[in-house]
Design a protein that fits this description.
Distance between the termini: 89 Å
Number of strands: 9
Largest sheet: 6 strands, antiparallel
Order of helices and strands: HHEEHHEHHHEEHEEHEHE
Subcellular location: Cell membrane; Cell projection, Neuron projection
Strand content: 25-35%
Keywords: Cell membrane, Cell projection, Membrane, Phosphoprotein
Shape: elongated
Pfam families: BTB_2, H1_KCTD8_12_16
Main location: membrane
Number of domains: 2
Helix content: 25-40%
Radius of gyration: 33 Å
């Protein structure tokens, strides 16, 4: 220990006698810090609590990216390890799978129902993957509709439909109470449906609710007031161009569902209304 201390003092003395030497020692120390970590060919990662296993060459695929710097010994700070010895990155662990896929394939491939494009773009910017950021910034290559076929968003068609019956009292037909709708369905271009119906539009049954320039027939309204839906369409500049409907069931159902009133079942019908804004 004494010998080591003497060596340290001698180095300090030498540094003070030579004005150029301290800078050289500092640069050498910085270089030593950047290459102290040795990475195995197969790397185990802990990204925000989600575990991944990949090759070192994949992480080094883009030398200018943050991961390329971290796992090539060029980073100014060492990569931390968790309690299990895995290399730890304090970022979104779920979205990291797309970062890893991009490094492996050198192209961006996302699922059709992907709805976190902005968050993924933020992650790509953090990892300094410029090409991936550009791919996420230009959505036309991922749009399900060819841009040359897109029409002006101010024009379009929305179809409103419903299945309904009449609620009856105990005296049957002589005591008709009110119209009974199970659900008001909405079909059309997503942007137009959202514009017209706003918060009253329920998108929970639409599997591709992340995209915008597409059509869906899986929307329905959060209320069952047909006239309210019509008023909203009129206020948005739409005109009803046509409608059609089925006749009532008429006869009795052979296999009636439990709890279903026989009179209500006889009056089941389905109607559609086509609304157009030019």
């Amino acid at each position: 220990m004494a010998t080591n201390g003497a060596t340290t003092n001698s180095s300090s003395s030498s540094g003070s006698s030579n004005s150029g030497q301290p800078a050289t020692d500092q640069q050498a120390g910085s270089t030593m810090n950047s290459i102290t970590q040795v990475f195995p060919p197969i790397v185990e990662l802990n990204v925000g609590g989600v575990f991944y296993t990949t090759s070192l060459t994949t992480l080094q695929k883009d030398p200018e990216s943050l991961l390329g710097q971290m796992f090539s010994g060029k980073s100014k700070t060492p990569v931390l390890r968790d309690s299990k010895g895995k290399f730890f990155v304090d970022r979104d662990g779920v979205l990291f799978r797309y970062i890893l896929d991009y490094l492996r394939n050198q192209k961006l491939v996302l699922p059709e129902n992907f709805s976190e494009r902005e968050r993924l773009k933020n992650e790509a910017e953090y990892y300094a993957l410029q090409d991936m950021v550009e791919s996420l910034t230009v959505p036309k290559s991922l749009s399900p509709i060819d841009p040359s076929f897109l029409v002006k968003t101010t024009c379009g068609t929305i179809t409103v439909s419903y299945r309904g019956t009449f609620a009856f009292g105990r005296d049957g037909l002589a005591d008709v109470k009110f119209r009974k709708l199970n659900r008001i369905l909405v079909s059309g271009r997503v942007t137009l449906c959202r514009e017209v119906f706003g918060d009253t539009l329920n998108e929970s049954r639409d599997p591709d609710r992340g995209a915008v320039d597409r059509y869906s027939s899986r929307f329905f309204l959060k209320h069952t007031f047909l006239e309210q839906a019509f008023d909203m369409l009129v206020l948005a500049g739409y005109k009803c161009q046509g409608s059609c409907g089925s006749s009532t069931a008429g006869g009795m159902m052979v296999d009636k569902k439990p709890g279903m009133d026989s009179e209500e079942d006889r009056w089941n019908h389905y109607n559609e209304f086509v609304w157009v804004r030019e």
